[in-house]
């Protein structure tokens, strides 16, 4: 059994000490005010927020999942993260981050007041957003917790650790024990340093991951050059037909079982459903988690857009260098990997940790482990900060103690943070695996969110009651529908939950009067969305003829289209580099250059345009 070298342990220890110091150093700034704690005082530069956001998305559970996908599906795996969908960052970059930041809110729930006012419907909407946000945050925290547990137990054998633990831990709870230990470090710096502490810890983590990704990418590139790659026909192509038609039976027969379990065999149907769901989820805007909090923490609407665009630029090439590097090593040295889990079955989610253990040299192993542990803590800390924001800002300060002092707010931040962590750990103990939690979050839970959140941006008549009943109908159906169809992939349940949510939204809207016109006019004047806003626009023009309608729908959609092509090129380019596919590398670079030129001209140069 390969154990961690003392050098690797020292590197991990140095990293853990570093993030504790960051939390202590930034503690004083975080305690200055609510905005300083939750949003970093809205003074953090866009490129640091972008790096932090990218770091939060470079999570350990997601990396385990993506390495598994690339091992099984090859270049076609570039499409599967559209389940999230990853291209929602492009919609945010082009226009939605700008719209959201103009609200000047602290959380997504506080934003409700700027759109629906503060009467009964708005209060109901406020409550349901807080509930949804907390469910989403707890789901993400449990998701990260599972991945960390699977990861750590491979590198730190319990028979060694048990000598230093004064109480008994049953074997099945060993990974959860490790998860709790590293969670405590994440809690420490995120509770003390607030958003500023999280951002700076994320920047350190992303630097570590960049070094590790470059080295792993090089090792994979080198291995591909020295060995014959044995993969099914079509593995190196991003194209696909009606069915996946990828046959592993002559190479690794168990992989065919994995494809069948995933439910991706009819790939064209799966792809169309991903695009349908992904576009709707993206138009709805960011879910009320750490991504939204980073947008609201930016200095201005222009910087919010730049931050969202920067995420894809720095995240995709670095992350996929690592993913492709590990996939290459795992494919070439598959016989050396031990993928048998505790139940005696092959678990392809063990590819990443076993490949690290098998192929990464001393020193780099410690750096990589520190980075991946940091990736868990980054996602955990950002999500925890979002959950705290909703509990403190949208429940405690709104309903319990509106006049709370900074000391009371600080203490409440600490208390709510600890409660959220405890609940997420309990949920993590009962979750099945990384993929099951992921499917529930991105396919089922998002279905309850989309309908009402598309309407809130684009239809003036939509009111607080419509939002509440749409979200409530969606959340209830998200809890019931999967139980009625337990063997159906979550993605295919999305349209049913979406339809129920839309019905609730429409009925709720028309059983109550429209939102107060003054509220709507102020919202439209500040945010200036395109969509069905003509009655409100006309009333504003009657008061102020200089008010201009947002006619950027066509340009925004063009930029979204170009941006998605550019983002996808950034995903496949490192894959092609690692697997030495020269012609596709040149084509990907040419596409990127054209996309960069178009986005510079039609997006970046237009960011400074004024509303009037």
Could you provide a short overview of the structure?
This protein is mainly alpha-helical and 612 residues long.
Structure description:
The chain is mostly helical and 612 residues long. The protein is 73% helix and 0% strand. α4 crosses α10, α8 (120-155) packs across α19 and α10 crosses α17. The relative contact order is 0.16. The mean pLDDT is 83.
Strand and helix map with partners:
Layout lengths: L5 H20 L1 H4 L3 H6 L6 H12 L2 H14 L14 H15 L5 H9 L3 H36 L2 H4 L12 H53 L27 H9 L4 H18 L5 H8 L3 H32 L18 H9 L4 H37 L5 H25 L3 H25 L5 H21 L5 H21 L6 H11 L6 H10 L9 H26 L3 H21 L10
Helix pairs in contact: 1-10, 1-16, 4-10, 4-13, 4-14, 4-16, 5-8, 5-14, 6-12, 6-14, 6-23, 7-8, 8-10, 8-15, 8-16, 8-17, 8-18, 8-19, 10-14, 10-16, 10-17, 12-18, 12-20, 13-14, 13-16, 14-15, 14-23, 16-17, 18-19, 18-20, 19-20, 21-22, 23-24
Features:
612 residues, mainly alpha, 24 helices
Helix/strand order: HHHHHHHHHHHHHHHHHHHHHHHH
**Number of DSSP-assigned strands:** 0
**Could you say which overall geometry the principal axes of the C-alpha atoms support?**
globular
Question: Spans of 5+ residues with little confidence (pLDDT < 50)?
Answer: none
